[in-house]
Protein 1
Amino acid sequence: MKKAVVVFSGGQDSTTCLVQALHHYDEVHCITFDYGQRHQQEIEVARQLVEKLRVTAHKVLDVTLLNELAISSLTRDNIPVPGYQPGATELPSTFVPGRNILFLTLASIYAYQVEAEAVITGVCETDFSGYPDCRDEFVKALNKAVVLGMAKDVRFETPLMWLNKAETWALADYWGQLTLIKDQTLTCYNGIAGAGCGECAACHLRAKGLADYLAAPENTLQQLKHKTDLA
């Protein structure tokens, strides 16, 4: 039996990964992290989506210690969430230091426990906010360290790593879940589901990607198939 653990926030990217995983694996476990994030609403959204998609199991893990250590506009209410800033070269204040290091490590321990062969995460290097822990190089390095440290062949999968946001929307549509992901996921840093606040960087990337996909769905789907092993 093929098993996987999905790092699941209830946002567009992780929900798209979850939808695909349900087609590729016999048993899918989701793990959601409560780190005291500003957009706390994503935890309840994740719970609702897991129930709707009939996932095997869902664990919500309290890691609020990250909130104590990592200073970010997502962990401190007194630091405002910046709007979309095209051409910015510095790390945005929404970067949470160590977040993916912690999440992927804990997800790997959970995978060890449930005997899953893969940990799936929706990080992406193509359309992202410059976060260093979303890079392919980082994911592969941490994967190697985890395998060495646990003496267990756990594989990190990053289905969205080389997709742009339009292609991520195409992937959701390919699996027949475009409407669910458009209306019922939460990507917004200000905690507004669906289209979100429309002002933060996460909302900008999401909206632009959807507009680009809807403007040329067939071409985007062909680009997606060229990059992946979809039929």
Note: Strands lie at 3-7, 27-34, 57-62, 118-120, 155-157.
Protein 2
Amino acid sequence: MEITTYLLYMSVLLFPVLFDVSAQNSPVCGSPLISSRVVGGSDATEGAWPWQVSLWFNSRAICGGSLISNRWVLSAAHCVQFSPTPSHYTVYLGVYKLDISHPNQVAVKVDKIVANSQFDGVGGSGDISLLRMARAVTFTQYIQPICIPSPSMVFSPGMNCWVTGWGETQYGVNLPFPRILQQVMVPLISRESCEQMYRINAAYSPSQPVIKSDQICAGYQAGRKDACLGDSGGPLVCEANGLWYQVGIVSWGDDCALPNRPGVYTLVSTYESWIEYYKSLPSRSSNLSISVLLLVVCLILHQ
């Protein structure tokens, strides 16, 4: 075989390996293989929310998050304020019981953190972050990505959605051992209605909006069902046309499950282009792969 033909042959063989083509062939997002849900504040079924992740800082679970690709996790900006050093964070995927390790569970270090530059504190705009894992994960029935909605998608007030996490069961009350993933169904609330609720018995400035344009609310005027401390960064998901979309990120609230104080979530569709921009950036390993392939091409051309 001539050297030119051989190198061309090798480049064809190497291309899928160098660019991890198999990893790009991800399953359809928002399509859990296990489906079993009970309305309101209950234990989830293992595998029912396969995009749910637990974000740890050093050796402590601090927040939730969601898998959006084989390398990227979506969370809240306030969840990555503990340290700017990516290696201090670990993403746990396929987790069901937070206190008990399981063969379905995978732990991956973080190698890049992107917190939205708009974020200036709890309650403010831009409470969204991206974390790139140090390696691509393999999708299983317990590890699957969630869909990101486009800005044109409409999720109307009153639509029943779900929030999941391992946070407190009520303010000041930790989820008991073994900390099974919790789920609760909450209806979406219009920003206008949510704004009115938050101004009841409150001293907010009349000129400053409480609920920002990049936020959405979900819950009940009577309270009782809500996300709580420890659920931050986790997903609020809604089903549309047979697929699950992440409509919100658990951001903030006044206490937990109080009357007229529904949960406030970062509106994910507002940041779709921001998310896609960072997801599309090549990783260091991809840069190396490109360099190797270019070297092969140069060798071919110089024969």
Note: The two ends are 13 Å apart (CA to CA).
Protein 3
Amino acid sequence: MGDEVLYKTNREKDLGAEITPNLSPEAHIKIIPSAAYARLANIRTTFRNMCKESFITLRTTHVRPILEYVAPAWSPYLVEHKTKIEKVQRYATRQVLVLRGMSYEERLRELHLTSLEDRNSQEDMITTHKTLRGIDG
């Protein structure tokens, strides 16, 4: 590239995902929970008493994209990574007042949600199907 000097970096951000030389998702997974918790704090400040319908709309619109953005590229495969990300959703579902005494699984059922691990598995299957069938988008 002419006289341009290329510098070696330990981390690069591309399309919103942190890329490291060893292609580990570790750096990206460290960023996800803090961004999601920040968004949840904004939601909690704005909506003190949240009903189930409001929670589903706000979570789907503002939090889930943070948790799942480019997930097929950095798909967490270590239990500790999955736990860090799932912990955000556990916390988020406790924000609905009427569900506070329930277990996480009961809150998911009540809100008609799936765990993030189940959703990632589903997305992996969809991506694999599209790849094998040659389907774009």
Note: Residues 26-46 form the longest helix (21 residues).
